Amino acid sequence: MECFGLDWYIGSLASFRLVEMNSISAIYQGQLDSLENIKVSPFSRAYTFSDSVYEVIPYFDGVPLCFQMHIERLKLSLEMSGISVDIAIVQTEIQKLALELNSKNGYVYFQISRGVDELRSHLHQDDMVAERFGYVVSTDLFSNPISAMLCADNRWAHCNIKSTSLLGNVLLMNQARSQGCKEIVMHRNNYLTEAGASSVFYLNAEGIVRTSALNENILPGITRDILINALADGPFKVEEGKCNVGDFDSSPCIWLSSSTKGLLPLNKVIGTKYIYEESNESFEEINKIFNAAVQSHLLAAI
What we know:
The protein is an alpha+beta fold. It has two domains: 17-140, D-amino Acid Aminotransferase, Chain A, domain 1 (2-Layer Sandwich), CATH 3.30.470; 146-300, Alpha-Beta Barrel (D-amino Acid Aminotransferase, Chain A, domain 2), CATH 3.20.10.10. Helix content is 25%, strand content 28%. It is built from six helices and 15 strands. It has helices at residues 45-49, 67-81, 87-99, 167-177, 222-231, 281-300; strands spanning 17-18, 25-28, 31-34, 52-60, 63-64, 106-113, 131-140, 146-152, 183-188, 191-195, 199-203, 209-212, 238-241, 254-258, 262-270. The strands form two sheets. Strands 10-9-8-15-14-11-12-13 form an eight-stranded mixed sheet. Strands 1, 2, 3, 4, 5, 6 and 7 form a seven-stranded antiparallel sheet that branches. Helix 5 crosses helix 6. The radius of gyration is 19 Å and the shape is globular.
């Protein structure tokens, strides 16, 4: 049985080091080139209005993790945004980019905007040609817990769309960075929503794995889904629902999940009394179960 090297993935740090920085491959409207040669119009609606959606697909030894789940989420974002594009072309272009990894670890970023205006206008033409752009990066990621800041979620009301309109996330995450944090944990009226670029899980005082139920304020994370399904038949009870951030004060472990973080523990959450128990055996077991599930998904993709 082939085993994929997941040290890059499990418990990896949010920041990363680019490998071969000067040779990032990109694609624009079907044309593969180096990233530095890609030219985009200033009237791209992605540029003027963030009128675009995106997807990030991780690869391990050149094999995609849950490729079709990412495509289905992209299709849903496109549908909710009213952007029309041939998804078969999108899949082909993503796969073309992935070949540039040469069986290495990395990810493909792919973005689709509504198109390019003749002149900036809130009202778009009905016959616009969708604008497709993507790039691929091979990466080394490092596994160390990070700190986060608790903050009120002031984003727009449709965060279940994977939109490039991320100003709310950007402002809050950079505010947190000034406090020495690499992430944020957001809440609405003291009920957990998600992190700036991740889903959030925690163990409560009774040892139950808790996370927010999906709604319009929460992105349906692929890694989130992998973890929940992996834990379904195991010793850990998982509850999705309304999670009061007051639970953090008695939690032994809070962690993030995303395509580029895997499961990443938080060692501190500013604004709470949370204390990370590094020796917590429950999280270590959850991590092992998750790792096994990821391996299974990768083997199924070969």
